[in-house]
Write a structure and sequence with these properties.
It is a single chain. The protein has 263 residues and is mostly helical. It contains 13 helices and no strands. The chain has one domain. Helices cover 82% and strands 0% of the residues. α2 packs antiparallel against α6 and α6 packs antiparallel against α8.
Length: 263
């Protein structure tokens, strides 16, 4: 159960990131590119340069025959919306949580408020939980806002270019309710642990590279035709990530000590 002092720490961290124009702009620019500009480029290419859609043909052929029937352009847009964009979207919770979590303990050190925080009547575990929750809330706010913005923009563009309405499928439910929270918690836990020993935000963020690389490999795998991310792949990935997040969080609580923070 979160008490009043923990809620105060969470609110302070959230205000800190939103008042920092440089960090907050990074948290807005990357989601804007991935959820508005990138899908818009895909849709415009499909509509105005149809010969370029041949690049998507080999991906479309990996879908079940029933999903290949019907209007070609609409099928390509479904492919982009429900198979390609979910992989790109995974970068957003990683990015949002890393920006927030990296400044967690490092920010306290830079502002010379770390000692005051440690003197408050909270245990280290409660401080750790507060830092995790603040970063997690910001990550989820950015992720869900980005998702709804993407769907709104894409649906308007789809209606204007095809006259049809193409809705997101269940893969997005898996992304938003399972994978995105799990991958956010993994990134946050790794970075908060690193930020306890780090002296700069950049140093604390280094561990997120290990999370971004698998996403990049998934993107490359899709466009090379080696792998098309399906609902079952996403579900399996979500379960693995959720288990990994639970293991990391439990292990990190034990390693979060006064000695590691004050070094």
């Amino acid at each position: 159960m979160i008490n009043a002092m923990q809620r105060a720490i969470i609110k302070k961290d959230l205000r800190g990131i939103t008042s920092n124009k440089q960090m907050f702009s990074v948290m807005l620019i990357v989601p804007l590119v991935l959820t508005v500009i990138l899908p818009s480029i895909f849709i415009l290419v499909i509509h105005f340069v149809p010969e370029e859609t041949a690049e998507f043909q080999k991906l479309l052929e990996m879908l079940p025959l029933a999903e290949q029937a019907g209007n070609f352009n609409q099928n390509i847009i479904k492919l982009v919306l429900n198979n390609i964009m979910p992989v790109f979207f995974l970068i957003i919770p990683i990015m949002a949580s890393s920006v927030m979590a990296a400044s967690s303990i490092v920010g306290e050190k830079a502002n010379r408020t770390l000692e005051t925080l440690l003197y408050c009547p909270l245990s280290l575990r409660q401080i750790f939980q507060s830092k995790i929750l603040a970063s997690f809330l910001m990550s989820m706010i950015v992720s869900f806002t980005s998702f709804f913005a993407m769907i709104l923009v894409m649906e308007i563009e789809i209606v204007l270019t095809t006259g049809a309405i193409i809705l997101p499928d269940i893969s997005w439910m898996i992304i938003m309710l399972l994978i995105s929270p799990a991958i956010s918690l993994i990134a946050i836990t790794l970075i908060v642990r690193a930020s306890a020993k780090a002296q700069t935000v950049e140093e604390a963020q280094q561990r997120t590279v290990f999370l971004v690389l698998p996403v990049i490999l998934l993107v490359v795998g899709q466009f090379s035709g080696l792998l098309l991310v399906s609902i079952w792949i996403l579900l399996a990935l979500g379960v693995v990530l959720a288990l990994l997040a639970a293991i990391l969080m439990n292990g990190s609580k034990e390693k979060f000590s006064y000695e590691s923070i004050l070094k």
